[in-house]
Amino acid sequence: MKQLTSHVSSSNRPHAKVLSMAVFAIMAASFCSTSHAVTTDTTSNQTEIEALRQEVNALKQIVQQLSAQQQTQQSVSPSARPVTSSTEPALEATAVAPASASIAPAQSANAGQPMPAVPVSRNPEGWAVLPDGKTAAKVYGFIRADMLHDFKGQPTGKFSNLHTQPLDSSDPVENKTAFTAAVTRVGVDFKTPTAIGDVGGKIEGDFWGNGGTGAATFRIRHAYLTTGNWLFGQTWSPFTGQEYAAETVDFNGVTGTSIRRATQIRYTHPLSTATSLTIAGEEDSNSDSRFPALTARLEHKLPDSKGAFAVRGMLHEKRGVATSTVNGQVQNTEDEKAGYGAAIGAWYQLDPANKLSGQFFHVKGDGSFNYGTGTGFSVNAATGDLYFDEYNSAQLGLTHNFNPKMRSTVALSWVDFKDSSQFAIANPGANRELKQASLNLFYKPVSSIDLGGEYTYGNREVFNGDEGKQSHLNLMARYNF
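The structure corresponding to this sequence follows.
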């Protein structure tokens, strides 16, 4: 009896019918044994009968358990197992067929047979534990399609790039319509526990590599790793302030806001639970620069998620090089100058339905930190002298939530370039002032879909006095995953 019990328990995939027949055989044998023993010793027989009944009941329970297990295994891959983590919610096992299943080599011993499922475990936040059992990954992104119509003339790159808006003196072609899906985005977040703590990472890209001037090409937006308070790689500069910018349908945002992503080495030091200081050395926009640009950010968050504000700073160096030939000898003439930038940004939740946000920048010598502000400097090709541009930039936005499915934002932006600088004198066709206003409406029929429409009006003025008017419509549909 003990041998039969052990055999049934160790079987991986028992057949319920066979086990049931075994139980009936045991019961029959027990009945015959007890019938013979009645004539000899009634008390002893009763004890044996009771023991046999207990063993039969135990076997019945084994049959029931193994039968249920067999049914479960028929519907779920036997290789999928729940995974739990001390820091994440319990993960649900999901069997995912590998991409290689349909292209298994013909010479494989299993050619023509279905390949086994690869176990991938996911938690409610979307993190999937990879087969190594340590690394977790989460895929995200969106598929987006835009229709754009310019009533006054189409700027470079299809979206409302006011800084390239055609000037009225050029008699631009009006009423042009364009379409694009190139801002579709995909990214993957990673995290792995190690002996030095969790190591994280991100890879994100879209298809806006040519700025909308030709066929869509893939580009890297973010590619970095993090460990502790350190970050290494390409992501938003600490000088930017994405969370303080107004929400727009326009892919680039309002003119003058900071959207710079740069390769950097960054350290963030928490001063308190609500305040942090971030410093970074990052790639300078001028390839001839000797030093990285230095950026810093001091940020404070208000309690109860009521708002936040940040003060940012930036130092950079630019170098101009002029090449000439004197008496048959090639000579380079160089000029180096240091520039700077300062910014402040804030957002505040006025009430559950209304949010106010705004930013102000002052920058000298670098236009790469702020959208639509040009290069920020020029080089005299004959002497190598550097001429710095200088500008102030301000943005203001108010978002109103009509209900959980509908919201709207009105945004204002202004960029004013210093017109008395050597840069202005040397570059009369460069921008003198940019002014822009936009009004949009977002509708979310379901949680994964956003539909948006936005009208933008703007004015561009260059140093020589020419102007260009902007009248731009942007319709958008986006599926978020």
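Residues 1-19, 25-40, 74-119 have pLDDT under 50 and may be disordered.
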